Structure formats: structure tokens, C-alpha cells
Amino acid sequence: MAPTIRLGKIFGIEISANWSLIFIFALITWTLATDVLPSAAPGQPALAYWLAAALGAVAFYLGLLAHELSHALVARRNGVQVSGITLWLFGGVSQLAGEPPSARAEAFIAGVGPITSFAVAALALVLAVATGPWALVQALFAWLAFINVALGAFNLVPAFPLDGGRLLSSFFWWRQGTRQRGVHSAVRIGRLFAYLMIGIGALELFTGGTSGVVNGVWIAFLGWFLLSAGQSEEAGSVIKASLRSVPVSAAMTSPVVTIPDWLSVEQFLESVAPSHHFATYPVHDPAGRLTGVVRLNDLIRLGSAARPDTRLNAVARPLSDVPVTRPDEDLAALIERAGASLENRALVFDGGQLVGIVSPVDIARLLTARQALRRS
Predict the structure, then answer these.
(1) Range of 152's domain?
(2) 68 is catalytic
(3) Each residue's pLDDT tens digit, 34-43
(4) What is the pTM of this model?
(5) In terms of domains, do 214 and 259 share one?
(6) Which is catalytic among the residues 14, 68, 233, 336?
């Protein structure tokens, strides 16, 4: 099962949804249909509550999508490439393939999200007032107004990966001169908020009764999530700063061993793999054209009974899933652009010829060597 569902494109930006949204959608619908709407507009048929609840859940995610789209469009306007938008358990994330060019640009990119949520809330509030004669519809719009205000306010908490953390980072970037320093200062403040949330969650867990158990666990979990996200943001900032102006050629493995894609998995594992130390191999067709990439772990997981009759081209990952780069591209730029897909390795081409391959292990090895040189 794929981790995300592709929904399509808006303004040329790829939109995806994580599978976790199915359960969150069901939870929102159930909460609206069984609690929020019956309390606000009693006396309606059960079917009406469930239909309105389902529409409310859809409207909530449309507001969330508007929030993330505003980030992506402002980022693109400021010269930052946008890989896509993914809606998931905690809301959404705009995947920016690069860093903002200035503290001012980062502030605009971060700040437009909460502003959009507040604008959606204002629109919902106007519609709630306008639909006064229809109690159920009015209750639904009132809830949408409240939830979007809550979304905008929560995103202003000064902790990564929330917009408030990025606003704080842009302020310190402006004051201290570099983005890395800005991120470091913002993470320190965000850590205090994360610990505060964990403490409040623990207090609620032990003193809040039955309902306090659920609320306490959620608050503490959110605090832990913000703490982990801040640490990841700072680590990523340090890595990008270390690899800026370092070319891909400094980390890539070369030459690359390519394998005929018509070999069986058994032939490859018995005759080819033992002769090399690589974990990833590009494969080619009889004409010499690259057709994909095979990962040693994927082949090993294939059952032994299937290996003799399964060709490499049947299990190869398509080239569209593999990032492509040049020997002179900055490693920092490649990491930002490729993101999680770097796990599939990056193929390095020079003048149309495959000249190298880059893996996370290659990058980690280069980072270790550079850190050792600094200490010596």
C-alpha cells in the first residue's frame, strides 16, 4: 500500500494525501455527527447529521488545503521550487525544494498560512450568520469558523515545524545574519514550548479524570512531536550549511555498475551481487537504455521460489522514482530537491552519460570526513 494517495494538481502543484487522513476524516465526521451538530442544532434526522458531518469534514480539508496552497504559491513567487503538498495526520505540509532567499521571504511564506486560515474562518462566520434560518447549516459553518481559527492560532505556536517556528526563525535570521543561526535560536525557544506541552499533558493525564487521559496523551504527544521536529530542523540546517558549495561529485560513487534487466533475480544474486559491494544497481535493456534501478534488499525479500522466473525489469523501481542530478550541483540543493526520494539513490549524469550514483550513505560518509577535518 502506497503511503500517499495522489489527488491531482492545482496551479501545477502536486497534491497528495497520506492514508492516515482516512481515519482522521472518519473521526471528524463521527465527532460532528454524534456530538457537535446534535448539540448545536437539536431535533434533526440522524441522516442529516451524518451528511452534514461528511460535508464538514470535506470543507475542513479544503480549508487546510487552502492554507498549504498559500504557502506554496508565495514560496514559488519568491523563487523557491515546490515539490508538492501532502495532507496528513497533523494537517498538511508544503514540500519546498529549496530555502527562502531571505529572512523577509521566509516570513512571508510562513505568515501567509495562518492569515489564510483566518480568512477562511471569517468567510465561514459570514456564511453562518447568513444561514440563520437553517440551524444545521448554521451550526456547520460556525464549527468551520471555529476550527479554522484554531488551525491558524495553533500554527502560530513558535515551534517547528509550525508556521510560528518559521516566523521566529526568520526574525532571528534577520537579527543574526544567517539562516542557520536563526533556526538554532528558534529551536531553543520552540523546545521550551514543547516541554511545556509535555508537562501540561502529563498533568492532565494524572489529574483530569477519564477525559483527561485522552487529552493528556494527545497534548504530550504533540509536545513530543514538536520537540522531535525542532531537532530534525536544526540537524537539517547544519547539514545543508555544511554541504553548501560542495558538488555532488565529491560524494558520488563512480563508476556505476549497470546490470542487464533481463537477468533473473536468482542469476543476479548468485553471479553478480557477490562480486560487488553495492546495494543499488541501475538496469538496462538490450539496447543499453536505462530502464530502472534495483535495490538489493528488495531482491532478497523476494521469495526464493519466485527468484528463478522473475526478471529484474519486473521488480526494478522506475526511473521516474529516482532523482537525477549533475556532478556540479550542490549537495545541499540535491538534498532539498530530492527529499525522501533520495532513499532510492540519485543518478548522476554528465552530458547524457551515467557517471555516478549518490546514496544517503555516501553523503553521511562525506559529512563524517569533513567534520573530522574540522576537528583536526
Answers:
(1) 1-156
(2) yes
(3) 988 999 889 8
(4) 0.71
(5) no
(6) 68
